[in-house]
Amino acid sequence: MACRQYSYVKSIVASVQIAIALVFGSTWAAAASEYRLRAGDVIEVSVAGLPQFSHRAPVQLDGSITIPTIGTLDVEGELLKDVRERIQAAFAGKLLTVYASDGRELTRTVEREDVSATVAQYAPIWVSGDVVRSGEQRFQPRMTVRQAIASAGGVRSSIMNGEIGQRYDPIPLQRDYIASWLTLASQAVRVWRLRYELGETAEFDRSSLPPAPVPEDALSRILALEKDIIALRQEDLRRERAFLERSAVLAEEQIRSLSERLELEKQGEIDDMEEYERLQGLLRKGHMTNMRVVDARRALLYSSTRRLQTAHALMQARKQLDEARRALEKLDDQRRLAIKESLQSAELKLAEEHARLRSIQVKLELARVTVPRESENVSRPSITLIRRSGASSVTFEASYDDEIEPGDIIEVDVKKVPVSTGNNLGAIGTSPPRYALETR
């Protein structure tokens, strides 16, 4: 029962999917049938069962197409469905001669339903202006302005620098500038954090960075993360110091206990030695049995062993105390040494990021594009669409998501605005500025 219900539901879903496909397919088919032919389109005419009579006919500049079997037709400006009906009417009733595989000559009468006419290739579009590859581009059904610009390689700056001879794409450059600024800010905050741990500064100086191309909270989040790292490292240092101090205290207590125990063990060994010597004297006089002397000797050996073990444990406790005290003394020195090594590496990376940011800014200057600021959005190019309508043309502003038609001309223009010279990056070739870490 469950299997039958599942199959029933599955069949309903499949039916809905087919219906959706038919709706959208029929929508595009209807739009294609309402399409008016223009110069540059290529019409494909085919006869069912007779592939040798298939023919592709481009629409010429005079608006005509030539089909070998029926001659020349004027089609420019006409609906595709009307042209199809004319071609079907021209073929209807014609006797076409074909040859079988054995060489026999056969004659076939063409019916209207056997003939089809479709647009095999639409008139191309042209993309010009600030794109990578300006010129003719192939049109695809339902093509948008965004897809047309992408087929032309994307937006580029139309400014050509005469000395360098390179073209710079402003939008990726602005994106690279933002990414480089964030990396630079992260390194600057890391340098501040390391100096803070060394006790050289108190608060981070935000004015030491170039103007932010991102919201202010981005830098605040970077600072918050570094401050969390400071807190974690300080807590780890506190725990390490507390552990070493506890180890030293325990070692001192163990030393006191073992020292007292060692004194008792020494006194016990002396007493056992005196008892053993006394019993040996009595044995020589014949007043003591040999078994009693053996027991006394065994007790002396046991006392000596305990004294040696206690002395060894005392020596180990003193060694642990020395190691704990030495670790406490070296803790701060090793920490400062590790921080200084990290600081050296961080300052080197900071200089590299500074040079990279400056390089991107130079490219932006060559492209005459503004350095992005926090209050600015990355500029989009101005797009103009020129569409032919009969004997005239219509020009209007377009957006990325507008659909285009065959034969459209798309002009892309990136606005060129001189870069503001006010920045904290310094001149080309100079050493990067030191990011001041102001103490408040």
Examine the secondary-structure arrangement and name the CATH architecture of the largest domain.
Answer: Orthogonal Bundle
Largest sheet composition: 5 strands, mixed
Question: Structural class, judged by helices and strands?
Answer: alpha+beta
Helix content: 40-55%
The tally of structural domains comes to 3
Number of helices in the DSSP assignment: 6
CATH topology term of the largest domain: Helix Hairpins
Whole-number average pLDDT?
A: 79
Would you list the SSEs in sequence order as H and E? HEEEEHEEEEEHHHHEEE
Rg over CA atoms: 46 Å
CATH class of the largest domain: Mainly Alpha
Shape: elongated
Compute the separation of the termini in Å.
Answer: 78 Å
| Percentage of residues in strands | 15-25%
Number of strands: 12
> Within the largest sheet, what's the order of strands?
9-8-12-10-11
Low-confidence segments: 1-10, 16-30, 158-166, 416-440
Q: What do these coordinates show?
A:
This protein has 440 residues and is of the alpha+beta class. It folds into three domains: 36-121, wza like domain (wza like fold), CATH 3.30.1950.10; 125-155 and 381-413, Outer membrane lipoprotein wza domain like (Outer membrane lipoprotein wza fold like, Roll); 170-367, Orthogonal Bundle (Helix Hairpins). Helices cover 51% and strands 15% of the residues. The chain contains six helices and twelve strands. It has helices at residues 2-33, 80-91, 145-151, 170-197, 216-285, 290-366; strands at residues 42-47, 50-58, 64-67, 71-74, 95-99, 105-109, 115-121, 125-129, 135-137, 382-389, 392-397, 409-413. The strands form four sheets. It has a five-stranded mixed sheet with strand order 9-8-12-10-11, covered by helices on one side. Helix 4 (170-197) packs parallel to helix 5, helix 4 runs antiparallel to helix 6 (290-366) and helix 5 packs antiparallel against helix 6. The longest helix is centred in the C-terminal third of the chain and has 77 residues, at 290-366. Mean pLDDT is 79; it is low at 1-10, 16-30, 158-166 and 416-440.
